[in-house]
Design brief:
The chain has about 400 residues and is an alpha+beta fold. The chain has two domains: about 170 residues, no CATH class; about 170 residues, no CATH class. The protein contains twelve helices and ten strands. Strand 6 and strand 7 form a beta hairpin. The longest helix has about 35 residues. It is elongated. The two termini are about 25 Å apart.
């Protein structure tokens, strides 16, 4: 009987195509928009992700997310390093400084000042130069996206419209907050939420770039001793110093929660996903119901021959599951290809396995709703109707 149900489904290619269109559209919209949403949220803590050697982030208790800069006294670093269980603690400066381009335009940059001796938190992947070159006089390392984009030198006068600028390269000079900086390396980093150029330098040099303030240290980066429980160490740092201490995972989720709570990003993407679900349900439900009506005489014949309602229900549900699997595979496949094609662009796209589970569950729900609509007609069918006329 179940094989017959599949033959009925694949025997009407026109109806099958219509049903798959609705399921594929729903799977595509839910997967694509969900992946873009996850990509944006991932960029909200990109700086944390790019520093895997750091176990614990220590900051002012009023900090709400990674870009919420509330500087501390530099002496706090030594208080943190004195806490039992801390292997090392180094300072990190994080600020937005203006870079003056050759055409006189100012461009805001994210400047990260790394510990002078260890350079902990520096870029993992260097494209040109070496991280150790930051110790050279006035040295800075620029991320490749910023070097080829917003920090690129403008094209010569008279160039055709749309002519790209000349990327910043090793040896070029930048002007950060009216101070000279020499590019000693180009690196690759995860794109930040603000999509601004990222500039690395030493902590001491960052102090000279930044406007003078009484407090300039943004974070204290901590490495726990081997075998030390990170959560326990965070509590110990909090009690001993009065500062807030979070593990990498906690600080990431803290940043995500801020954007979920205080921005309209979840609402915007939620509306898009909801529309995809609604449209997919309407199209799939209509086409599946139409498919059932076209085959009602066959189902009625089976019922007249003694097929139980449970078997008929299983047949319809099998057809719905088959459509869900095929439609989800096509829709998620198209979304994946879309993500791969935009991997080198500014578009945020992060297709995680949890999203595929959610999208698959949504598609199955759509098909089950469509099947329930059809089942009502099948179960209320009178066998005698088949033999009339």
């Amino acid at each position: 009987m179940y094989l017959l149900a599949l033959k009925m489904l694949f025997g009407d290619m026109a109806k099958l195509f219509g049903i798959l269109m609705g399921v594929t559209l729903a799977a595509l919209v839910i997967t694509q928009q969900g992946a873009i949403f996850c990509g944006i949220m991932t960029r909200s803590f990109s700086i944390i992700s790019d520093m895997p050697a750091v176990d614990i982030w220590v900051m002012d208790p009023k900090v709400q997310f990674v870009d919420d800069n509330k500087p501390m006294q530099e002496t706090e670093r030594y208080r943190v390093s004195s806490v039992a269980g801390v292997a090392w603690a180094v300072p990190l400066y994080k600020g937005n400084l203006r870079a003056r381009l050759d055409n006189g335009i100012f461009q805001n940059c994210i400047v990260l000042g790394l510990d002078d001796s260890s350079l902990v938190g520096g870029p993992i992947e260097m494209i040109e130069g070496a991280l150790g070159d930051l110790r050279r006089a006035d040295g800075v390392v620029v991320d490749v996206v910023g070097a080829t984009g917003r920090l690129a030198k403008p094209p010569p006068p008279g160039s055709p419209p749309g002519t790209p600028g000349t990327p910043v390269k090793v040896g070029d000079t930048l002007e950060l907050n009216d101070r000279r900086a020499i590019v000693v390396g180009i690196c690759k980093t995860t794109r930040a939420f603000q999509n601004q150029p990222i500039v690395f330098t030493t902590y001491t040099r960052a102090m000279s770039f930044a406007p003078r303030e009484r407090k300039l240290m943004s974070f204290v980066l901590v490495k726990a001793k081997e075998g030390e429980d990170q959560q326990t160490l965070c509590q110990r740092i909090n009690r001993g110093t009065g500062l807030a201490a979070y593990t990498q995972a906690q600080f990431k989720w803290m940043s995500v929660e801020y954007f979920l709570k205080y921005t309209g990003i979840p609402i915007n993407f939620g509306i898009a996903v909801g529309l995809g679900f609604l449209i997919g349900t309407i199209i799939t439900g209509f086409m599946f119901y139409s498919f059932t009506l076209d085959n009602i005489r066959f189902l009625g014949t089976l019922k007249a021959m003694g097929t139980s309602n449970n078997t008929l229900t299983g047949m319809v549900l099998l057809q719905a599951i088959a459509v869900a699997v095929i439609g989800f595979g096509i829709g998620s496949g198209i979304a994946t290809l879309f993500g791969q094609s935009t991997s080198d662009t500014a578009l945020a796209f992060n297709l995680i396995w949890q999203l595929l589970v959610v999208a698959g569950g949504a598609v199955v729900t759509i098909c089950m709703l469509a099947a329930m609509l059809s089942l009502k007609r099948v179960l209320s069918l009178e066998s005698a109707v088949v033999f009339k006329g």
